[in-house]
Each structure stands twice: as structure tokens, then as C-alpha cells.
Amino acid sequence: MIKGDKKGSASADSKENEGKPLITIFFGSQSGTAQTFAYELAEEAKSQGFNGKAVDLEGYENEELANEKFVVFLMATFGEGEPTDNAVQFYEWITSNDRQPNTLPSTTYSVFALGNRQYEHFCAIGHKTDKRMEDLGGKRLLEIGEGDDDGSLDDDYSAWKSKFWEATHAHFGTTATAQVVKAFAPSFTLAWAGSADSKAADDENEDPNANRTGMYCAGAAATTKFISYKLLCCWYDVQNTNCKLIQNTNRRIALNV
To answer: Tell me: the pLDDT tens digits for 62-71?
Structure first.
């Protein structure tokens, strides 16, 4: 069984961030880059004296956007100018004619758009999001940033981020601190979900020459069983919504976390 440790740290995080301005960081991500940027920015927000929260647009209640005071959108463009899979519903909502011009009068926002100049509609979703936020009454913090995946995306993002923090501190009247970039690093523990007898039986019946599909895992607990130099064997159900099952062969699983 695989369990994330986020619940255990929720109470400590809540106390640590109490009274700090909240920055809600939304991401529309297809390959994971915008998502990684979002979690890194949320961690960096804490070092800058804010409460940072990364939010997947797929699970967000769009009507709640009117209650947000300070938001960031990290929006990738997929295919020929389309929103990423997790941002489709949000994009349809925000571009709908049903939205009134003064829907977001209390929301300050900024947008960083991710794209690839090899495609015709470079960063289209980010630009459309930026324009619609303005149309709906949002207050733009700074000009939209663009990141080119065919060029120097990381450099583009870092340059935009420096401007973002300068503008953010000016907005809140706070003092900037030295930037500390903390990479997003998911963590979990592994434990046997079955009885010791069932584990021993599986160990005894394991064919050393079987075609194995394992799990790439950093920092695994001692309860796992090594079956090769790079692969780990685990027989039990995954119980972590932040893990994505990418392969399932027999009873062995591969995870992308």
C-alpha cells in the first residue's frame, strides 16, 4: 500500500501560513511542466512570506474564482491552440458568453503561458485566459509571460518569475527575500497491505526468471522487495490520488509520481 504524507503535514502547514496573503496558482498542464512550475511556485511563495497553493483546474469549482483575491495561471497550449485536458472545462467556462463583464472585480491575476513556437497558435490558451480575466473585471498584476518549449522555457519562466515577485511584493506592500527555489518532490511510504503469511507465500512462489514490470521509486521504505537493480516489486493497491498508474502487468505496478 502506498500512502502520501500530505495529510500529516496539513495541520503544520496551516499554522505556518496563518495570516499570510494567499496566492492561488492554477495550472493547465498536459505533459506536467506547468504542473511542476505551479508546485514549485507555491513552495517559493512560502519562502517569500506568502501562503502558496497549487490547484489543478480539472477539480476546481469555477464559480469560486470570484472569491479569489490573488491568482496565477500557468497555462499550456496543447495541439493546435487547444486547452490541455485538465483545463477544458475551465476554459469553456471562462470563455462562455454567459459570464458577465464584472464577474471578477476583486481578483488580481497574472498569467504565464507555455507553448512551442513550432506551432501556429503559440501560447494561445494563456493569452485567451489573460484577456478573458481582464474582460471579466480582473486586475492584471503584470504583462503576460511566455515560455517557449522549443527554446529556453526554464529561462523564460525564471525571467517572468522575477518580475512576478517584484510586482507581487509591490502589490502587498511586503519586502522581497532572496529567491529560494525548492523543487516539487512527492513523497510516500510503502507498507505491506496483506498478512505476513501471504507475503511469504508470494516470495516462495516468485519465479526469478519471470518477466517483471516494476516500480521506479526514490526513497522507498525497507518493506519493499528488490527484484533487480532498478526495479522494485509491489503487490498491493495504490491509495494516493497524486500518483498516476501508468502500467499494470499481473500484480506489479509502475507509478509516475
So the answer is: 999 999 999 9
